[in-house]
Design goal:
The complex is a heterodimer of chains A (123) and B (107). Chain A is 0% helix and 54% strand. By secondary structure, chain A is mainly beta. Chain B has no helices and eleven strands. Chain B is globular and about 35 Å long. The termini of chain B are far apart.
């Protein structure tokens, strides 16, 4: 069974960098799939932040692209999110998820999700 | 970017009712649409992919239809455990985008 678990500071000061890690178990990241981050401000909807392919290719939401870096560490079977210059608007529950994309079959969805971690931006 | 608009934003229905949620894309996305269910304090769960395909293990009372710009998600007979917020999500083009959600409550 594939499991994902987010970890990182729950409180980040304005203008600093938010850093989260997603540990994956039950599946080797190096075997394939895309891996992504999605966030949800309190009481609001879901926003895709970006995805990384197991090979390291990255895809970011243009609304966040200038501040986002997603990386993968296959040796530790985990991937990470860095979001720089945070403000209160970045306060949200951050989810990591596995993204199944099979272009030939026209399929592309998030099939496994972490439980989410709340990150608050405040001084 | 493709914008996804769901309606209604909230919905109150009785157990056993047929419930319908609509999702409209700002441009043609073919059938490249997913539906997720999110219960309070939990991560979203995939219910429908490719507009109308039921994910394995999901009860058959859930269904999806549509193509192009207009899509429908239906619960044929509402159950108490279906109380959640439902989101559509397009994958025709990056950035991936979700609808704003429809919160379903029991009347």
């Amino acid at each position: 069974q594939v499991q994902l678990q987010e970890s990182g500071p729950g409180l980040v000061k304005p203008s600093e960098t938010l850093s989260l890690t997603c540990a994956v178990s039950g599946y080797s990241i190096s075997s394939g799939y895309y891996w992504g981050w999605i966030r949800q401000p309190p009481g609001k909807g879901l926003e895709w932040i970006g995805s990384i392919y197991h090979s390291g290719s990255t895809y970011y939401n243009p609304s966040l692209k200038s501040r986002v870096t997603i990386s993968v560490d296959t040796s530790k079977n985990q991937f990470s999110l860095k979001l720089s210059s945070v403000t209160a608007a970045d306060t949200a529950v951050y989810y990591c998820a596995r993204r199944l994309k099979v272009a030939a079959a026209g399929r592309d969805y998030f099939d496994y999700w972490g439980q989410g971690t709340l990150v608050t931006v405040s001084s | 970017d493709i914008q996804m608009t769901q309606s209604p934003s909230s919905l109150s229905a009785s157990v056993g009712d047929r419930v319908t949620i609509t999702c409209q894309a700002s441009q043609d996305i073919s059938n490249y649409l997913n539906w997720y269910q999110q219960k309070p304090g939990k991560a979203p769960k995939l219910l429908i992919y490719d507009a109308s395909n039921l994910e394995t293990g999901v009860p058959s009372r859930f269904s999806g239809s549509g193509s192009g710009t207009d899509f429908t998600f239906t619960i044929s007979s509402l159950q108490p455990e279906d109380i959640a917020t439902y989101y559509c999500q397009q994958y025709d083009n990056l950035p991936l985008a979700f609808g704003q959600g429809t919160k379903l409550e029991i009347k």
